[in-house]
Amino acid sequence: MRAAVRRARGGRTWRPPRVEMVREGSPCWEAVKEGDLLLEIAGRRPLDVLDVMEMGAEGRVKLRLRREGRELTRVIRKPPGQPLYLVFDEAVFDGTRRCANRCVFCFVDQMPPGLRETLYVKDDDYRLSFLHGNFITLNNLSREDVERIMGMRLSPLYVSLHSTSPETRSKLMGGQAEKGLEVLRELLEAGLEIHLQVVVCPGLNDGEELRRTFQEVLEKYKGTASLAAVPVGLTRFAENLPEKVSPHDPDSAACVVELVEEFQSLALESYGSRIFHAADELYLLAGSPFPSEEDYEGYPQLENGVGLARKLMEEMGRAVVELGPTVPARGIVTGRLGEIVLRQGLSEAGCTGAETIAVVNRLLGETVTVSGLLAGRDIAEALRETRPASRELLVPESALPEGRFIDDLTPREVEEATGYRLVPCPVEGGELLRLLGGGDPRA
Q1: Which DSSP state fits 152?
Q2: Global confidence as pTM
Q3: What domain range includes position 247?
Q4: CA–CA separation, 365 vs 344, rounded Å?
Q5: Which of 33, 39, 47, 334 has the smallest count of CB within 10 Å of its CB?
Q6: 363 burial class (0-12, 13-18, 19+ CB within 10 angstroms)?
């Protein structure tokens, strides 16, 4: 166990980061070993990997380390600007900044007990937004934080907007959220790349309220790189939320898609970019066709479920042109929405006869239809019920971010319970077709 050191400023706990890897070609190759604890760099205690990057950019860098209980000092000499190429066990060393909001639609508050530990973490840390694309609210930033973001030019950043109305935003977030709007304008005026999301809640921030938000993004938040409208996610535990939130239906989803497309045209005319995008789930729920690949403008919010379907189908189409048709040798386990996309993509790629097993999410509720939240126990139950002919089945890697499903089961444990081998598959069309045709998953 590493000894915890209490920081005087901010009251957060600091732990010296552990070196997990010294990358080949690192100027620290002989000086630093895996397992070393970094106590100081350039005479200062680093708070995160950003400090390591900044303080390690000089031509001469002094490191203070702890190795097997002994403290060591190493001086690294290298060309100025060359990275240290050290990989640590965590990105922030003074604790992840937690969310202090009480959002009326918070997905974490809808989690049942007994799932992966990380699913209960509410982070609102600008460093993780920059490093990993996590969405933040900007409500908890100090003046020092804002100055650091602008001074280090930390972008892109991903920000949960939800509404440009201070009153509506505060109602949705359960507190005073005007500060986040002020910081957002400041960061945009500084020229940082900012991507926004609006979690659309029927009756709360949709309709005319959503129209006003879109209009004010064009007028008052100029420079926004992209804005994604995503549907509110509700599990069967939504009664734990502080306010009743309604799910989307086909009509409400269609209204959001229509509004997005209206403002895409306005933004394209005024700024040369569509800016506004709707999540794939809204198109599927509305029964509307997906936009063209060109309309997604480089897919700026793939991780937010925007354009994944179009990208997958385009990749499958290109793979077929290059490699020819695929003869299925495996089946595919997916969510209910994922099956719709896969069937369309496989059909367009001329891949007939592939088994698709659409798993009903009984753990979180049938309203949760995305593949990334599949539970191992639900997959096992679906396999026992359907008994697919394929003994090997692809399962999306997005459902296994830590090698485990949301309920902490591993693919191996599902295999032992059902007799079916699960093969993790990247959400990439060409690789999906290769693995579907029996390709080696380790290749």
Answers
A1: T
A2: 0.91
A3: 108-305
A4: 25
A5: 33
A6: buried
Residue 214 included in any domain: yes
Maximum average pLDDT range among 229-243, 284-298, 359-373? 284-298
Tell whether 191 and 242 lie within a shared domain.
yes
Task: Judge whether 375 and 361 are in contact, CB under 8 Å.
Answer: yes
Q: Give domain status of residue 409, yes or no.
A: yes
Task: Give percent of the chain with pLDDT exceeding 90.
Answer: 86
Which residue intervals of 110-177 are DSSP H helices? 126-132, 143-151, 166-173
> Does residue 97 lie in a domain region?
no
- For the chain, the average pLDDT equals 93
Q: Is 112 left (phi over 0), alpha (psi -120 to 50) or beta?
A: beta
Q: SS3 breakdown of the chain: % helix, strand, coil, rounded to 5?
A: 35, 15, 45
Within 10 angstroms of residue 402's Cβ, the number of other Cβ atoms is 10
Q: Would you list the DSSP string of 6-49?
A: E-SSTT-EE-PPBEEEE-TT-TTTTT--TT-EEEEETTB--SBH
List of E strands, 134-236: 135-136, 157-160, 194-200, 226-231
Q: Are 158 and 133 in contact (CB under 8 A)?
A: yes
Provide the CATH number for the domain around residue 399.
3.40.50
Q: Are 155 and 225 in contact, with CB atoms under 8 Å apart?
A: no
Tokens linked to 78: 């290298």
Do 268 and 368 fall within a single domain? no
ω into 396 cis (within 30 of 0): no
**155 in the same domain as 297:** yes
Shared domain check, 119 and 185: yes
User: Are 273 and 216 within one domain?
Assistant: yes
What the block records as the tokens of 401 is 């971010």
- Domain end call among 305, 340, 363: 305
4 pLDDT band, cuts 50/70/90, is: very low
What pLDDT shows up at residue 120?
87
Contact 195, 158 (CB under 8 A): yes
**Assigned domain for 68 exists:** yes
CATH number of the domain that residue 45 is part of: 2.30.42.10
